[in-house]
């Protein structure tokens, strides 16, 4: 089983729609969770951290479910500019800052 | 703003050549990383460094070496390039936390 798994998509949604992605992780001792965004032919950039209590940043909501070992990202009122690949990132602790990236979920927002 | 720069955006090399990829960050970050990104496989960690002259193998170090002589600079070396090393190479840096800042990437083609 992969350490971090994501549905590759693509998720094709109309503008204004709400879309959600999940990401599962295998290591129950994982400590930190993040969503990164990667635009086509660009580098990944941090979108948001995922806190145990869940957190929201504008139209984006991230949640963590430790019991089922997954994190989710919800995007409300999708914009064309949200089209990108969303990478789930998990840090499993240890003495260094190594993290594991998922392979990403591609989102295409359609006019 | 954190800035991570990579020496080349595109590089074409021949099989057997020695290849140097350079990465420089301007934020005095402790940690630096080299990844390769391939379709369907996501980002895979090659090597990382948590201090000058220190290095640790990542998940796929075979065929690569690294050098960190100065805090701001982390070099990836392909001792004898092979066609299966054709990929997008991404450098990243981080301070004490797990958030990583990426460079723009180098697309390497080995013919």
Summarize the structure in words.
The complex is a heterodimer of chains A (111) and B (111). Chain A is mostly beta strands. Chain A contains no helices and eleven strands. In chain A, the strands form two sheets. In chain A, strands 2, 4, 5, 9, 10 and 11 form a six-stranded mixed β-sheet that branches. In chain A, strands 1-3-8-7-6 form a five-stranded antiparallel β-sheet, with no helix packed on it. The radius of gyration of chain A is 14 Å and the shape is globular. The model of chain A has no long low-confidence stretch (mean pLDDT 92). Chain B is mainly beta. Chain B has no helices and eleven strands. In chain B, strands 2, 4, 5, 6, 9, 10 and 11 form a seven-stranded mixed β-sheet that branches. A four-stranded antiparallel β-sheet of chain B has the order 1-3-8-7, with no helix packed on it. Chain B is globular. Chain B starts with a strand and ends with a strand. The model of chain B has no long low-confidence stretch (mean pLDDT 94). The chains are: A mainly beta (111), B mainly beta (111). Chains A and B meet through strand 5 and strand 9 of A and strand 5 of B.
**Which geometry of chain B do the CA atoms define?**
globular
What is the H/E string of chain B? EEEEEEEEEEE
Major protein interface? A-B, 20 and 22 residues
* Sheet with most strands of chain A: 6 strands, mixed
In terms of per-residue confidence, which ranges of chain B show pLDDT below 50 for 5 or more consecutive residues?
Answer: none
Q: Strand portion of chain B, in percent? A: over 45%
Largest sheet features of chain B: 7 strands, mixed
Let me know the number of strands of chain B: 11
Whole-Å distance between the termini of chain A? Answer: 37 Å
* Average pLDDT of chain B: 94
Percentage of residues in DSSP E strands of chain A: over 45%
Helix content of chain A: under 10%
State the order of secondary-structure elements of chain A, H for helix, E for strand: EEEEEEEEEEE
Helicity level of chain B: under 10%
Q: Please tally the β strands of chain A and state the result.
A: 11
The radius of gyration of chain B is: 13 Å
């Amino acid at each position: 089983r992969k350490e971090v798994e994501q549905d590759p998509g693509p998720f094709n949604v109309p503008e204004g729609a709400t879309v959600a992605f999940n990401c599962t992780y295998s290591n129950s001792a994982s400590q930190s969770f993040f969503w990164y965004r990667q635009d086509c032919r660009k580098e990944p950039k941090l979108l948001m951290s995922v806190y145990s209590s869940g957190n929201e940043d504008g139209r984006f909501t991230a949640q963590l479910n430790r019991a089922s070992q997954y994190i989710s990202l919800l995007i409300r009122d999708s914009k064309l500019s949200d089209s990108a690949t969303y990478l789930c990132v998990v840090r499993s602790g240890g003495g260094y800052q190594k993290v594991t990236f998922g392979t990403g979920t591609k989102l295409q927002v359609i006019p | 703003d954190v800035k991570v720069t990579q020496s080349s955006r595109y590089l074409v090399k021949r099989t057997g050549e020695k290849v140097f990829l350079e990465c420089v960050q301007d934020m005095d970050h402790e940690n630096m990383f080299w990844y390769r990104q391939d379709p369907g496989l996501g980002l895979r960690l090659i090597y990382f460094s948590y201090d000058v002259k220190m290095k640790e193998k990542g998940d796929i170090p075979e065929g690569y070496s690294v050098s960190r002589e100065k805090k701001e600079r982390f070099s990836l070396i392909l001792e004898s390039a092979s066609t299966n090393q054709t990929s997008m190479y991404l450098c990243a840096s981080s301070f004490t936390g797990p958030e990583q800042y990426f460079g723009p990437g180098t697309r390497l083609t080995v013919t």
